[in-house]
Design brief:
By secondary structure, the protein is α/β, with parallel strands linked by helices. The chain has twelve helices and ten strands. It has one domain (5-314): Alpha/Beta hydrolase fold, catalytic domain (Rossmann fold), CATH 3.40.50. 41% of the residues lie in helices and 17% in strands. Helix 2 (103-116) packs across helix 3, helix 4 (168-182) packs across helix 5 and helix 6 (198-207) packs across helix 7 (217-229). The longest helix is centred in the middle third of the chain and has 15 residues, at 168-182.
Length: 318
């Protein structure tokens, strides 16, 4: 059942929660001392009847709400399901060194949670959008702790390259980041003003690629509020790091099988980007969800689940 709550975040204001209540939650300390919030759904990790644990990593300025269908499905099936808030997001802390707001640091946040919880069994790890880049780095750094990857709506390159089916976002983003190096304050203030306007954050939710015929109004509202929860400094630091497109170069080092799940109507990371991701990975299967958007795991949670489970069966993954 969909439940709606309001959560207080040390980084932010109040935001909507659509997930079921966690069974357990707490903080892990990342490599640089940043506190990272995590929560567990489903059985205990040491429960004798527990199935393989699953880890879920959301996209930039998103929230755990992105995984509500998957958490309900797999926690009920007997999988311990672990989620975390990255540094600078929601209930996690901000790094003392702002230079440590990058994809590699976020992957180390995932490692910190996994080791804090004492997980020894290789995980099935899910990533959405920027979360794909994060979990790819985790899989390279911690191959013994990763059995497979489920990559929803990711890209190996600068996400601006094909965004909205145009080269214009890539050209504008380059100029924006160049301008920010010399004049950061006007850009940060403009983004803060944008976040303060509820109508504008709803527009950003639609631009983020929701299929409004499939996702609920609460999904879109929760996303808009999550955007408001994350500081301008965090948003632009991670966005610029993503724009460097480092992921392509490291893909040959991924040693585990991956399922790339694309939305056929994704305008943020179009299917061409996701096919490229699948082609560059050493061992990947590609599936495209008709009518799926950039939030395909929210649009069609049950159908995505069936495709993931088919992949697990065919590959002999449990």
């Amino acid at each position: 059942m969909l439940t709606t709550k309001l959560l207080k975040s040390p980084n932010s204001k109040t935001h909507m929660r659509l997930l079921l209540d966690a069974i357990e939650s707490g903080y892990a300390t990342s490599f640089d001392g940043t506190p990272i919030f995590w929560e567990r759904h489903g059985p205990r990790l040491d429960d004798a009847i527990a199935l393989r644990p699953l880890m879920f990593c959301y996209g930039l300025v998103c929230s755990m709400n992105q995984w509500r269908h998957q958490i309900e499905r797999y926690s009920a099936a007997g999988h311990p399901c672990i989620l975390l808030d990255y540094r600078g997001h929601h209930r996690s802390g901000n790094p003392a060194d702002p230079q440590l707001l990058n994809i590699s640091a976020l992957a180390k946040d995932v490692s910190a949670v996994v080791h804090h919880l004492g997980i020894k069994k290789p995980l099935q790890i899910w990533g959405h959008s920027m979360g794909c880049n994060v979990v790819i780095e985790f899989a390279i750094a911690e191959p013994a702790l990763c059995q497979s990857l489920i990559l929803c709506c990711g890209t190996p390159d600068n996400p601006f390259n094909q965004m909205l089916g145009s080269q214009i976002p890539a050209k504008l983003s380059g100029k924006l980041f160049d301008f920010m190096k010399s004049y950061p304050e006007p850009i940060l203030k403009a983004w803060d003003a944008f976040r303060a306007r509820p109508a504008m954050t709803h527009i950003s939710a639609y631009l983020a690629g929701f299929n409004t015929s499939a996702s609920t109004r609460d999904d879109i509202q929760a996303y808009a509020e999550a955007v408001c929860d994350v500081s301008s400094e965090t948003f632009f630091a991670l966005l610029e790091d993503m724009s460097r497109g480092h992921t392509r170069a490291v893909l040959p080092r991924v040693k585990v099988p991956a399922l790339v799940v694309a939305g056929a109507l994704d305008r943020v990371t179009p299917p061409s980007e996701q096919r490229a991701l699948a082609e560059l990975l050493p061992d990947a299967t590609y599936v495209e969800i008709p009518a799926g958007s950039h939030n395909v795991q929210l649009d069609f949670g049950e159908y995505v689940g069936l495709k993931v489970e088919e992949f697990w069966r065919k590959r002999g993954l449990d």
